[in-house]
Specification:
With 493 residues, this protein is an alpha+beta fold. The protein has 14 helices and seven strands. The chain has a five-stranded mixed beta sheet. The protein has a two-stranded antiparallel ribbon with strand order 1-3. Helix 8 runs parallel beside helix 9, helix 9 runs antiparallel to helix 10 and helix 11 crosses helix 13. The radius of gyration is 52 Å and the shape is rod-shaped. About 4% of the residues have low confidence.
Length: 493
Amino acid sequence: MSDTPIRRYFMLILTFLLSFVGTVGLMGLGALAVAYALQTSALHGLAASLINSVGSAVTFIIVGTLLYIVLFVWISTRLVFKRKPDLPVSSSAGWALSLRWKLLVHIALSCAAVAAFLFVGYLLSTALLTIRPLSYPLEWLINWIGSVPLMIVTGIAVFLVSFVILTNELMDHLEKLGRGLQEISAGHLDHRVDIGTRDEAGWLAEQMNGMAEQLSEQIHEITQGLKQMEQGQFDSLIPEGAGDFGLIAASINRMARKLDQLIRDERLAEQTKHDLITGVSHDLRTPLTSILGFLELIEKDRYQDEVELRYYINIAYEKALTLQQLIDDLFEYTRVNNGLPLHKSRIDMVGFIQQLADEFVPTLEKHKAELRIEASEPVLELEADGSLLVRSYENLISNAIRYGGEDKYVDLKLFTAEGHLVIQVINYGPPIPERDIPHLFDRFYRVERSRSKQTGGTGLGLAIAKSIVEAHGGRIEVQSNQERTLFQTSYPL
């Protein structure tokens, strides 16, 4: 049968019954022993004197009470309060004596002490009454106070003293628990409470020690994590447990990840600035070197005739135009990426693209190409900055015309899909190598490894287009295969 409250109450009732039966049995044996003593000449005087002095009824009650208390305590510690070895230590049923039962036992023992003290006192007072002059104070107390009130007062005093003595250990344990809580609350998590009992006080001490140890471990983990973060190791995260310390650890980990990301962004920005300076230096040096070289030839009159002179001047002029285009693109890219404010208005993108296509008529005629526009609706409006979008789609359309190859068609398609306005710029020239697609929108990146300015441009056009599209909350992506190359932009409506 499991150790349930019903079983324990049953065992308690059984303890009362067994104690009663045992007391009756022992009192029966005592009665036989007294009868035998009265018949024995050697013991007759002692037994008769005890019965005559105390009284048979009083003797019977006092001895029976003492026997019953002793039997109750002895049996209860083996039936009701005995710890079951298979129960866990943390279980309330696994303790040898709970505080409740300990108090009951202390009360019972205090009552037994009262009974024993009164019995012994009665014997001593009976003997003292026969001795003069020691009997005078006792007679005065009995006459003025009365024997019954005197016994009641004495019994209460004895009960209180014995109860305080018996519960002194329990009070010491409670004081230890109190001091332990004060030490832990003061931050001394290495403090441990040692009681050594198998009751609720001992269980509470174990729980306090376990709590302090767990808090110490959690604080140690947080401290170690902070030390590692202090050394720059932001990837060393603190274990996240349950409770408030888990929330603290999670907050610190989030802070560490954000700091790590900020540091990475700062390093990336520094590397980006370095790459930008390197790219600008390279791209400025190339046309500038050509310009200086041809101007040096002209300055030193190292040309044969006016035709060669004009040839040198024409090359220097074209290089200067290239240098001007690079500076303009670089300025535009820097301006857009520095958080240029947008002056948005409602724009009809169909009319916008049509007007932009008209501006490319000379370029289309030069390349003998044709630009076709296809829109799903006559009017498709978008809240945008028109001056910036012009720059973005100028780059995309000019690239489509430049790289159209032998197929002279460039298609522009406008439609809506899933709450977005989609604009596609399509050419049917040679495909972009797959290895180059992830880098098309990087600064100064050109598909041509020779970095030719005749076909490769400045390497900033697509980067500028991407920045402008993203400034409007849109996306730009590219797809390229043997049939076509498609640049697609989409904006939330």
